[in-house]
Design brief:
Blueprint: H1 12-34, H2 43-53, H3 55-73, H4 83-101, H5 117-124, H6 128-146, H7 149-172, H8 181-184, H9 197-216, H10 219-241, H11 253-256, H12 258-281, H13 286-294, H14 296-308, H15 316-319, H16 326-353, H17 355-373
Helix pairs in contact: 1-3, 1-12, 1-13, 1-14, 1-16, 3-9, 4-6, 6-7, 6-9, 7-9, 10-12, 13-16, 14-16, 16-17
Length: 374
């Protein structure tokens, strides 16, 4: 296989995958919030549930992939204190703070004294942004320790395998009995966390390994490797799941199974391979796709606020709830998908055209949130 240095020209497939993942996440959350439960059954709905289950793994894998590509471009800058390193760590911290802000259970900080145990658990549970932010910060620490890209990729690959294998054990441990709940929430979904580090950080780690491998070989070779590896992972995951023995007890397949991890990353590999093939043969609006991909986390935050509410608004879950038939739900899905696409493009343009003002807007939002809680 041949080496190739023109990686940026081959990232359109990855950007397209990220756009598809975030838009599928928008429709998934919209359906979950608005569709009446009486319609949530049948063959089509069951297949949709499986596809929806691939959205978050794809999102996490591509976060790791993007981290690796960005790190390789400025490897030396991330080995020593620098402005690039400071901006990167600040961004990761912002993800974590933003994640917690989305679940604030009180209107003002004075109301914290009335918060019961369930309220604290709801606030401190780990969601997408906290998991990704902390995992990326840990990866930056590994960059310091590894010193070279090859060693870094090897360490991360091993760490990802370890996290996936240990996930069932982590879910069965009583973390709350040994750690403060705010820390324990990062290790197991039994605390109520939607995206604890076990197993979700393993998807980010795998994305890093994938980004390293993808950066070293030609587009054709990368596509073949992705296809082969993808089907191999799926096959191994399915075969292991159907073996009559298991090494784990009390295993929740849909939340912590290493076999499901293999199946999902196999599907992500096949998806990336297919998109790699398409982007080489179909002329697509590169800049538009890249703009949306860069704003995927912003789109995630905004659509969550619209659907589930925030400090400033009641979400559709409270205003409408799970009361709509399929046709009306589909209308809301198309409306929100279109709205998020337009929002992503608009915010991306605004950041490029008015960088100082965009920073001021972010700062103003943080001040407004702080004021709302005061």
């Amino acid at each position: 296989m041949t080496r190739r240095s023109t990686l940026p020209g081959r990232l359109l497939a990855v950007d397209l995958a990220r756009v598809l993942a975030i838009l599928f996440m928008v429709q998934g959350h919209t359906l979950d919030v608005l569709l009446d439960p009486i319609y949530r059954h049948g063959f089509v709905f069951d297949k949709w549930l499986f596809l929806r289950g691939l959205t978050a793994p794809t999102f996490f894998v591509l976060s790791g992939f993007s981290f690796m590509v960005a790190t390789l471009r400025r490897w030396d800058s991330y080995l020593v204190p620098s402005s690039q390193l400071f901006r990167r760590l600040s961004r990761f911290l912002f993800f974590i703070i933003l994640g917690y802000s989305m679940h604030v259970p009180v209107r003002t900080l004075r109301d914290l004294k009335w918060l019961d145990a369930a309220g604290w658990q709801s606030w401190l549970q780990v969601d997408v942004l906290q998991c990704i932010g902390l995992t990326l910060a840990f990866l930056q620490l590994l960059v310091f320790l590894a010193k070279t890209p090859k060693r870094f990729a090897a360490i991360v690959t091993g760490a990802g395998a370890a996290v996936a294998i240990l996930a069932p054990l982590a879910w069965n441990m009583n973390w709350e009995g040994h750690l403060p709940f705010s820390v324990a929430a990062y290790f197991s979904g039994s605390t109520g966390s939607f995206f604890p580090l076990f197993p979700w950080s393993a998807y980010v780690f795998f994305g890093v390994a994938l980004g390293y491998a993808y950066s070293r070989y030609s587009s054709h070779a990368s596509g073949l490797c992705l296809t082969g590896a993808g089907f191999a992972f799926i096959l191994v995951g399915v075969v292991l799941q159907h073996l009559p023995v298991t090494i784990y007890s009390n295993l929740d397949y849909w939340k912590a199974s290493p076999n499901l991890f293999l199946t999902r990353i196999g599907c992500v590999c096949v998806l990336l391979s297919a998109l790699n093939w398409i982007t080489q043969r179909v002329k697509l609006p590169r800049k538009s796709i890249q703009s949306l991909a860069q704003e995927s986390l912003t789109i995630y935050f905004v659509h969550i606020c619209i659907l589930y509410g925030s400090l400033w608004n009641q979400g559709l879950r409270h205003r409408i709830g799970a009361t709509l038939p399929p046709l009306a739900t589909m209308g809301w899905i198309w409306f929100l998908v279109l709205a998020m696409v337009l929002w992503g493009w608009t915010w991306s343009w605004f950041k490029r055209a008015e960088p100082m003002r965009s920073h001021m807007v972010r700062f103003a939002i943080m001040l407004a949130a702080a004021y709302s809680l005061s």
